[in-house]
Write a structure and sequence with these properties.
single chain, about 525 residues, Rossmann fold, Helicase, Ruva Protein, domain 3, 11-stranded mixed sheet, 3-stranded mixed sheet, about 45% helix
């Protein structure tokens, strides 16, 4: 239209087609993403049409979920929101298998239950959990193969399996029965790994075994789980399976265990027991999701193809529970999980190789890949595996994950360390942001005590959640953190090496200026 007049021109069909006049935006229809608000979890609004998105297991092939996103992207915030809303919508119980103790404080604040393995609670891995001893032995041996090198030594594997069977028989268990009671109807007490080690040691002491080195190594391997002070899985259980699965929100805190192997052993054992319990119940649509299990950064069991986490996801809609598997690094989650979960939530992703992995596994478009690369804190792309082949997109964008509470962010201001050229660069980040809980977790990982975390959190709140990075580094140094740890923290937060060098230079200057002044007062003045 020129000068208020409409100009008519001829345009070829080919040119019109390029303009995509009648193409539906890359979002599923309202009937799928809005559905029944009384039977779904509100996530947020779609980015293009701003439609309220309610997630429901009824729309997808199974109730299992994968969540990926860098530290500070809103991953744990999403998990907390999801579990809370599921408890209201479906009366679902929530079990967090908490690798680093990250969710402990939040669960306590919501009135949930904390069970801390390694801090007074025990789990006997030879408990049956409603299984036949023969079936439980297979699970235990598969777990040992995942977590140790026993698969490389067939004779040691045979000796271990044989000793576990002998331990059950010695305690009067019937190997092919689920009913394990004595003559007067009392439940039999299961053996422990200590009983298994004792049987192997007794066999070795006879001196008639053909391969003594194999026997010694089999004993040595099991003893790592039976040493005094580290026998968390070699004593009778103090943890009740019913307590874990029917007590509302429960945090299974694994942070008190010595290392990744122990944490993985605890997580796998719990998953095995829950799977068997739910298998006995079976899937029933009208019951909804009785239990949702969340595993964040559980790479040790999310990556291995033979892990129970992968097996449960592959079995799909077989049980009345769902698993949420979350990680900062998508390659720490097995491709089999991404290929089989009903839904994947992709939050902010940092590296191209991670985008390559996600796009190759989930098969979304280059347009969507470009949008994912630009996601901010709390924004997400959602991939859903619908029941039937559809004409609408399976991957779409959510403008913001809308939680139960406003998502508070803390900001480290970089303005005081940037050059004039950097300040003029519109693409240069002038601050680094963290979700409040992610910030607390990150500084905890670098050695800041809980008392000091509370102190610095209060300073952020009093300073309108913005603190100059130089003052912040001085504060960390006064808390006793080394420059190496502080440098690693800043790098992990996305600050480049040149800027970090500038930060420490400014820190030295400002410390001389401050003399003995209280840095907390300086922060508040700024």
């Amino acid at each position: 239209m020129l000068g208020g007049k409409v100009k008519i021109s001829k345009v070829s069909n080919k040119e019109v087609a390029k303009r995509n006049i009648l193409v539906h935006p890359p979002e599923p229809p309202l009937s799928i993403i809005f559905g029944d608000p009384t039977n779904g979890i509100f996530i947020g609004r779609t980015k293009i049409l701003h439609v309220p998105f309610y997630w429901s297991y009824e729309n997808v092939t199974n109730p299992h979920i994968a969540v990926v996103g860098i530290s500070g992207s809103g991953k744990s915030y999403f998990i907390k929101t999801f579990l809370l809303r599921a408890s209201f919508v479906w009366n679902s119980n929530g079990l967090i298998i908490d690798w680093a103790g990250e969710y402990r404080d939040w669960v306590k604040e919501t009135g949930g239950k904390i069970i801390a393995l390694g801090k007074g609670s025990f789990l006997n891995i030879l408990d049956l959990g409603g299984m036949k001893p023969y079936d439980r032995i297979k699970q235990v041996m598969r777990t040992l193969e995942l977590l140790t090198d026993i698969a490389n030594y067939p004779e040691q594997r045979r000796l271990t399996e044989q000793a576990i069977e002998k331990a059950y028989v010695k305690n009067k268990f019937r190997m092919d029965s689920k009913d394990q009671k004595d003559e007067i109807g009392k439940l039999l007490l299961p053996p422990t790994l200590k009983d298994v080690v004792k049987l192997l040691e007794e066999q070795a002491s006879l001196g008639n075994y053909e391969f003594p080195a194999e026997m010694e190594n089999a004993i040595y391997r099991l003893k790592q789980f039976t040493k005094s002070g580290e026998d968390f899985f070699a004593q009778q259980s103090s943890v009740s399976l019913d307590e874990l699965t029917t007590s509302g929100l429960v945090d299974l805190d694994l942070s008190g265990l010595p290392d990744e192997t122990f944490r993985a052993l605890g997580a796998l054992t719990i998953l095995q027991f829950i799977k068997e319990k739910m298998r006995a119940t079976g899937w029933a649509k009208e019951k909804g999701l009785r239990l949702i299990i969340a595993m964040d950064e559980a790479w040790k069991i999310a990556k291995e193809e033979n892990s129970d986490a992968v097996m449960i996801v592959r079995e799909g809609r077989k049980y009345n529970f769902g698993i949420i598997v979350a990680s900062q690094n998508p390659t720490d989650i097995s491709e089999a999980i991404f290929s089989n979960v009903g839904t994947t939530f992709i939050l902010k992703v940092k590296f191209e190789r991670f985008l390559d992995y996600l796009q190759g596994t989930l098969n979304f478009s280059n347009y969507m890949r470009n949008e994912v690369s630009k996601l901010g804190v709390g924004q997400a792309a959602v991939n859903m595996a619908f029941h039937a082949t559809s004409q609408y997109p399976s991957t779409f964008l959510v403008d913001k994950i809308e939680g139960e509470e406003p998502s508070k962010e803390y900001f480290l201001e970089l303005g005081s360390v940037l050059t004039l050229k950097q300040k003029r660069d519109i693409n240069m980040a002038k601050s680094v942001s963290f979700l409040k809980e992610d910030f607390r977790r990150k500084v905890r990982q670098y050695g800041v005590t809980e008392e000091k975390i509370e102190e610095v959190s209060k300073l952020f709140e009093k300073s309108n959640r913005h603190i100059d990075v130089v003052s912040f580094v001085i504060l960390l140094e006064r808390y006793g953190l080394s420059r190496r740890n502080i440098s690693d923290f800043l790098k992990d937060s996305g600050i480049d090496d040149i800027t970090i060098i500038n930060i420490f230079g400014k820190v030295d200057v400002k410390k001389n200026e401050l003399g003995g002044r209280d840095i907390t007062q300086v922060i508040l003045e700024e």
